[in-house]
Backbone:
């Protein structure tokens, strides 16, 4: 039995699935925005991407048959963000930093001023991480996802998730211990 009805090109869930969607998915809206914010590095872009992801989740909710709804939604958010990045950002933003090719940047007066506040230092340190490390550390430490959930969201093996989280923590430690290095060793 199909739980959704197509009306003029759009999907409308039946009332039972509408309530189920609102009960299961909407409580994770903040987590969706938070992940989008860290992946896209922009509040405005994150609003657009998380809204698009929620529309996709709504559109395909009849295909959700149980399991971890937060992991399901965050996977949609992640995929939406990466699609958005491919369409809207230059290649340099999606190219990962290679520590062996690039030396650490010299601190600017602006970056030193930003780093004086602990929260701003943490934000700066998180933003300095390569995207593959930033996404796993945000999912693990800010969203409280298990390694298994992160593996499902990112479609990578649990061992790789654990390794990336460990490396991300190490890079964060370095960035916070020596802010003049900008997080690169």
Residues:
């Amino acid at each position: 039995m199909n739980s959704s009805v197509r009306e003029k090109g759009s999907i409308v869930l039946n009332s039972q699935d509408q309530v189920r969607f609102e009960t299961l998915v909407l409580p994770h809206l903040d987590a969706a925005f938070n992940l989008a914010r860290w992946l896209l590095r922009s509040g405005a872009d994150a609003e657009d991407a998380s809204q698009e992801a929620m529309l996709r989740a709504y559109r395909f909710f009849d295909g959700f048959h149980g399991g971890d709804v937060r992991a399901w939604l965050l996977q949609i958010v992640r995929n939406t963000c990466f699609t958005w990045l491919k369409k809207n950002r230059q290649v340099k933003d999606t190219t990962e930093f290679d520590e062996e090719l690039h030396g650490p940047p010299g601190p600017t007066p602006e970056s030193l001023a930003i780093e004086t506040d602990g929260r701003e230092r943490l934000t700066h340190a998180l933003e300095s991480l390569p995207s593959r490390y930033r996404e796993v550390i945000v999912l693990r430490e800010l969203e409280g996802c298990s390694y298994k959930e992160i593996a499902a969201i990112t479609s990578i093996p649990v061992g790789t998730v654990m390794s990336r989280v460990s490396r991300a923590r190490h890079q964060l430690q370095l960035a916070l211990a020596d802010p003049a290095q900008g997080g690169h060793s």
Summary: Strands lie at 4-7, 10-13. Confidence is low (pLDDT under 50) at residues 5-9, 91-95, 97-104.
